[in-house]
Amino acid sequence: MKKLMAANWKMYKTREDAESTANGLRSLVEKNLPSDREVLVFPPFTAIDRVAAAFDGANGFATGGQDFYLHEEGAYTGEISPSMLKDAGATWGLTGHSERRHVLGEKDELVGEKTAYGLSQGMNICLCIGEKIEERKAGRVEAVIDTQLELGLKDVPRDIAPERLAVAYEPVWAIGTGEVAGPEEIVEAHTMTRKKLEDVFGEKAKEIRILYGGSVKPDNVSGIIGLDNVDGVLVGGASLTSDSFAKIVLG
Ligand code: PGA
To answer: Would you give per-residue pLDDT tens digits along the chain (251 residues)?
Structure first.
């Protein structure tokens, strides 16, 4: 199973900046990319085509959309569809990111609908899950993971190809805070995630990648990527420059 090294650029970067970061990343990483690693970048919508063009022909590089709606087209002002993302060069979609859940108010049910819809439209999907600090303090980590996976995967066909789905465990309290989860916390949450995936998908859950996200940096990635059940990372702040993200990808 290849490790998935993913960058979430959130609402950062003009097209020009995105293109030069993507070109910089490719030139730093392409020749040295181990055969068991893949690179995935989620730019803002406006820059997807530039990033996809910058990655064109590079083995192991992919581009994704940070969000999408539940229809292919229609009167849905402000929304974007999987086919539009694919047209721009994206092959992956992101669902359930904590900022969409907790800033934009997306509920577990909507996250589940988007996950199933994106997959049905031919996109690969990275579903994000993770508890808030008050949930952790209340001993509810497993309950949150179970519910978010239960509802997030509710309508996903059980025979889905495992490489088309990834789950990113991102504790909300570690996102953008500089406070990375400790190795024990990561292993515990990833083990719970794997167990739940096995309940849902059986044997092939072993081949579904589970990424860790939350304040991943060049100097902590090597300690994270080797942990049990960690099959990649999802990186925000430290993915915004090509130097920093290249170190993470190769780290
Ligand atoms: P961060 O963000 O790396 O800046 O903590 C991670 C994410 O939001 O996916």
So the answer is: 999 999 999 999 999 999 999 999 999 999 999 999 999 999 999 999 999 999 999 999 999 999 999 999 999 999 999 999 999 999 999 999 999 999 999 999 999 999 999 999 999 999 999 999 999 999 999 999 999 999 999 999 999 999 999 999 999 999 988 888 899 999 999 999 999 999 999 999 999 999 999 999 999 999 999 999 999 999 999 999 999 999 999 99
Q: Which residue's CA is the nearest one to ligand 1's atom 7?
A: 236
The minimum-distance atom of ligand 1 relative to the CA of 8 is 9
What class does CATH assign to 3-250?
alpha beta
Q: With a 6 A CB cut-off, is 237 part of the ligand 1 pocket? A: yes
Spans of all domains in the chain: 3-250
- Between CA 64 and CA 84 the distance in angstroms is 12
Report if pTM > 0.90: yes
Say yes or no: CB of residue 232 within 6 Å of ligand 1. no
Query: Is the minimum distance from the CB of 235 to ligand 1 under 6 angstroms?
Result: yes
Q: Is 227:184 a contact under the CB 8 Å cutoff?
A: no
Residues annotated catalytic, as ranges? 97, 170
CB within 8 A of 28, min separation 6: which ones?
242, 243, 246
